[in-house]
Design goal:
Blueprint: H1 26-41, E1 46-48, E2 58-61, E3 73-84, E4 87-91, E5 101-105, E6 108-114, E7 120-126, H2 127-140, H3 151-166
The structure holds zinc ion.
């Protein structure tokens, strides 16, 4: 099932999600399948549960865009444990469509999380994967990438979004 993507302005995107406490249930496995399906349908490389209106600490990532099954990553209750180096690059978000900004992130990032069965996992990534790990983990704490850009750029973006909202073009 493909869920519609929740857009900036919905409070679910800006509050910390609840931790997952039940693992390996049919509901969780089905939900993860639906998250991947929703992410591929939206042509994203990462998706966090709040982006489909569910305030749970669950995110999926696939930087290969469905090309390599081994690139599929499930993060439940993730936390960043290590960030090294710096990378500068353009970043966007499915919940803020039509906008992209330069965002500085760590070049390498390590995330500790749990998988669908509740097992503790650690995922380390570089470059795009590091960016996705940081972006998606941020989502689960209610932080959008626009919190990492200048206040000036952020205010400009918010004004443009307000205009789109008023025109009924935001949803
Ligand atoms: Zn995002």
């Amino acid at each position: 099932m493909v869920y519609p993507i929740v857009k900036f302005g919905n409070p679910v995107l800006e509050r910390e999600a609840d931790s997952v406490t039940e693992f390996d249930t049919p509901e969780l496995h089905k939900f993860l399948e639906d998250m991947f399906e929703s992410m591929y349908a939206a042509k994203g490389v990462g998706l966090a549960a709040p982006q489909i209106g569910i305030g749970r600490k669950i995110a999926v990532i696939d930087v290969s865009n469905g090309e390599r099954p081994e690139d599929k990553i499930v993060l439940i209750n993730p936390a960043i444990v290590k960030v090294e180096g710096r990378q500068q690059g353009e970043e966007g978000c499915l919940s803020i469509p039509g906008f992209r900004e330069q965002v500085r992130r760590g070049k390498r990032a390590t995330v500790k999380a749990q998988d669908a069965t509740g097992r503790e996992i650690e995922v380390t990534g570089e470059d795009l994967l590091a960016r996705a790990l940081q972006h998606e983990t941020d989502h689960l704490y209610g932080r959008l990438y626009i919190t990492h850009i200048s206040a000036l750029k952020r205010d400009l973006m918010k004004r443009k979004i307000k205009k789109l909202q008023r025109a009924g073009d935001w949803g």
